[in-house]
Write a structure and sequence with these properties.
It contains three helices and three strands, in the order βββααα. The chain has 150 residues and is mainly α. β1 (2-4) and β2 form a beta hairpin.
Amino acid sequence: MAIICPKCGREFLGQRDICPVCGCATVDEGGIDNSEAARKQRLQQLQTPKKEQQNREQSQIRQQQSTQKSNASTSDSNPVQAKIIIKEDITVKIIGIILIVVGILGIFMGMMMFGDIGIACLVGAITALLSGIAFIQVSSAIKKIKKSVR
């Protein structure tokens, strides 16, 4: 009687409880069909729920987009979207300020350190400082765009 490994599909003669190749528990020949057609069928059965779930998610996304488009066409200014934009503007500005503060503190800390560590600290501090300046510039650009849209 042939013993089949359910993981690797190899057949063995005799009584084996564990596959010597992959270490998985083996099954009698009548237990699992490991032919290529049976493997493909099991794979399709495993993938079918995933495909159905993906189709449902895509249809929900399409429905949300269509409702957003219809809402946008009925009302030009949505207060929820305006609040989100305002929060994004404030968040960008706050991040910029925090980066500038970290950059300034890093410069002072880097001046107190010696050798390679001090240089690395200064490089990081200057990077944070420049990033903070860029964030504040982006924040002001967002304000200008908001004013031009209104």
